[in-house]
Amino acid sequence: MSANKPAKILLLVTVLTIALSGCSGKNKDSSPAGPAEAEKSEPVYGGSVTVGITQDLDGLDPHKAISAGTKEVLFNIFEGLVKFDADGDLNPAAAESYDISDDGMTYTFTLREGVRFHDGSPVTVEDVVYSIKRSAGMLEPKDPAIVTESALLIISDVVATGERTVEIRLKQADTELLPYLTLAIVPKDYAELDTKPIGTGPFKFVSYTPLQSIVLEKNEAYYIEGVPYLDRVTFKISSGTDAAFMELQAGSIDILPYITDAQASHLPKGYHLEAGPMNLIQALFINNKVPPFDNKLVRQALCHAVDRQAVIDMVSGGRGKVIGTNMYPGFKKYYDESLVNVYPYNPEKARELLKEAGYEKGFEFTITVPSNYQPHIDAAQVIVEQLKQVGITAKIRLIEWSSWLSDVYRGRKYETTLVGLAAELSPGRALSRFRSSAQNNFVNYSNPEFDALYSQGETETKEEKKTELYRQMQAMLTNDAVAVFIQDPYQLTAVSDKLGGYTHYPIYVQDMSLVYYKKGMLPD
Amino acid sequence: MQPGKNKHDFNYILGLSITSLVLLVVLTGFFYTPYDPNKMDAALRNSPPSLLHLFGTDNFGRDILSRVMKGAGTTYIIAVSIVFVGASLGTIVGALTGYFGGWFDEAIMRLNDVLTSFPSILLALVFVSVFGPGSYNIILALGIIFVPSYARVVRSEFIVLKERDFVKNAKLMGAGNFRIMFVHILPNTGRVLIPSLLIGFNNAVLAEAGLSFLGLGVQPPQASLGRMLSEAQGYLLDSPWYAIAPGVMIILTVLGFSLISGGLANEK
To answer: Are residues A318 and A355 located together in one domain of the fold?
Structure first.
C-alpha cells in the first residue's frame, strides 16, 4: 500500500459524502417505486435518451480523469480487461479469461476475439500493454497529466506473451489488483484521446460541448449480443442539482441521478424513482484507543443503544439499508447480511453492558461531525437523543471538513465521529483500513487476529477462500464493535416511465447500455 | 434623555411593545416550554402548525414553538454577551484614546481601522476556524469585532467632553485621570452609548444567526434562531413553517430594538 493511498480515499470520501449531503429526510410515503412494473414490458431497440449530470467533465482521456462525475460517463465509452457488473462482480470484458498465479505475482489475460475499437480496428495485445503501462505511469516519457491509481504502482512489468495473451507481473504478491484492471483499454499511441476518445465500450463518442453536453451513439460492433438498446445517449450538463431538476420538470431530461429527498417528493408526472444503495458506509466511528471506548463492552453498549432503523427513518425517510459491518451491501458476494442482527436495538442490554463495564451512571462524550454534511449532522442529532435513554450524554461538535481531515482522519484526535466512507473498488480495500498498521486506520483498531486474516487474504488466490476470509474479517469487526455501523443510504434516480433497465451499480457509474424504451413507448 | 419622558414618540412605544412581547416569550422559554425542545418523534416529522404544535414540527418531529422559545433565549444570551464584551472593551479603548489623544490615539485608532476594514463575518469565520466553533468562541469572536464601533463612538464623545468645564474643574480639584475618565466623563456618554448598545444588540443577534446558519455557531442539537434557520433551509418548499417561526422571531427582535433606539434618538 503506497503512501498516497489515504489521499485517494479522502478524495473518494469527499466526492461521495457530497453526494450524500443531498439527501435529507422527508415523507415516507413516496417510497421508491420498484422496477417491478418497468420489467413487465419488453424492451425495444432504438431511441435516444438524455441523462442529466450536474458537473462538467474534467477531460475525456480516461487515464487522466479524476472526478467520479467524469468516470461515470466514460464508463459507457471505455472498457478494461475486466468490467464490473451490477452485483459488484468482475466479468471479463476485453479479455475473455484470466488466471492469477498461485503465488499472486503474475496475472495472465487471454484477449477476447473480435473486440474492436470504435474506429473498427481490432484490439491487439500491444494496445493492452500500452494502455496498462500508460495508466500505471510506466511509459517513457511520462505524461504528468495521467492519474495513476496507487494500486497500480505494484505492477513491475506488462508483457505480451503471445498473439492473444498478456502477462502482468507484480513487484509483490497482490490478489486485489483485478478491480483496478478495469482501467480503460485505448488504441496504442493514439494522440487524440482528449478530444476524440476511442474505446471498446457499448457507446461511441460523438461530440462534447463543454458546459453543455456530451453525446454518444450506439456501438454496433459491441461484443455483447443485443446490447446496447439505445441509438443515442446525451449527457446534458446542468449547473447544479436544482437546475437539472428544473429541466427534468420541463421534460428535457429522461434520467436524473442523485436527486435529493425533497426533489424526490416533487417528482413530475411520467417519472418514477429508482433507488439503490449509495455504497457509502455511514457509521458512528469510534476511536478505539480513547477511554471509555477502549473497553469493548462500552462500544457494544453503544451499538445496542442506537436504533439504526429509527435513524434512517428520521434522517432520510427510511431510504437506506441498515448495515452491521464495514462492507457495502452492493458487493453481494462478500457482504455478510447476518451481521445486521448482532446488535439489535436494546437499551436494557446496553445498560447492562455499561454496568458490567463500570459505567453504570453513564458518561459523556463528543461526536465530531463535518459541518458541511447535513445528513451526518442529522443522524448525529438522532443518536444524541437515543443515547439519552441509556444515560449517555453525547455532545455534537461540528468542524470544518479540512479540520476533520487533519484532526480526526489523520490526527486521530477525537472520541467518535459520524461520517460516511465511500466505496472502494475492491472489497478487500474496504477492510484494509482496520489493520493495526494501516495509515488510514483512523478508528485505531488493533487486533492481531484481524491483521493475520488480512495478510492471508492478500495472497489468497482462490475466490471462495478469499470470500470466506472477508466474511470472517467482517464478523470480527462487528463483534469487536469497532464502530456503530448505521446504514448504506439509498441514492435516488428519477427515470422516465418510458424507460426500463436502469441499473444501480456498487460503483459510481451510469450504465446506459442496459437502458431501453419499453414497447410502444418509443417516441418517433 | 430618560426613556419615557417623552410619552408620545410612536416609534418608541411600538418598539417597546414588540420588544416586551418578544422578551416575554423568551423569558418564559427559560422556565417553561410546551414540549421538550429536543424531543424527537418520527411520527410527527414535518407536521404543519396545529393546535397541539402551534408552529408545527421540524424534520425530527420536534416542536418548533418550544425550539423557538429556547433557541431565542440562546441567541439572546449570546447577543448580550457579545455586546457586553464589545462594549466594555470598546469603551475602554475609546476612553483612553479620546482622553489622552496624541500618538497613542493615532496608533490605536489605525489598528481600529484595520479591524473595521475586514468584513466582520469573514473575520469571525477565521476566528472560529482557528479556535473551533461553539457558543463561547462566537461570543469572543464577535465581541472583538464589535470593539471598533464602540471605541469610535466613545472616543468622539470623550474628545468633546474632555474640553468641558466640569472636566477642567475636576482636574483643578486634583482628580486623577482615571477618575475623571470613568466617573466624570463616562456617565455623560450615555446619550450616544445606549442607542448604540441597542443597535449593537441587533447586529449581534443577526451575526449569531449568520454564523449559526453557516454551521459555526451553536452546536446541534441545541437550538438557536440561526441554527434553526440553517436546518430549515432544506425544507423551505415542503415545510415553510419551519423557517418562518425563527425568521419572524429575528425580525421582531431587530425591529423592536431598532424602533426603540430610533425613538430614543427622536426624543432629544
So the answer is: yes
pLDDT one-digit tens code per residue, A12-55 = 444 444 444 333 333 333 334 444 444 456 889 999 999 999 88
Angstroms from A145 CA to nearest CA on chain B: 33
Domain that holds residue A156: 7-29+59-64+73-182
Chain B residues within 8 Å of chain A (Cβ atoms) = 38-40, 42, 45-46, 59-61, 129, 132-134, 215-216, 219-221, 231, 234-235, 237-238
> Within a domain: residue A133?
yes
Interface of A with B (CB under 8 A): 24-27, 262, 265-266, 310, 313-314, 317, 371-372, 374, 377-378, 380-382, 384-385, 395-400, 403
In a domain, B232, yes or no: yes
The neighbour count for residue A240, using CB atoms within 10 Å, is 10
What burial class does residue A2 get, using C-beta atoms within 10 Å of its C-beta: 0-12 exposed, 13-18 middle, 19+ buried?
middle
Q: Can you state the angle between helices B190-213 and B240-266, rounded to 10 degrees? A: 170
Separation of alpha carbons B10 and B57, rounded Å: 36
Does this model's pTM top 0.80? no
In this structure, is residue B177 part of a structural domain?
yes
In a domain, B21, yes or no: no
Give chain B's domain count.
1
Q: Are A395 and B59 an interchain contact pair (Cβ–Cβ within 8 Å)? A: no
Q: Which helix (H) or strand (E) holds A8?
A: helix A5-21
Give tens-digit pLDDT for A136-185: 988 888 888 888 887 888 899 999 998 899 999 999 888 788 888 999 99
Q: Using a CB-CB distance cutoff of 8 angstroms, which residues of chain B are in contact with residue A380?
A: 220
Task: Give the Cβ contact number of residue A284 at 10 Å.
Answer: 25
What is the ipTM score, two decimals? 0.72
Check B221 against A403: CB less than 8 A apart. Answer: no
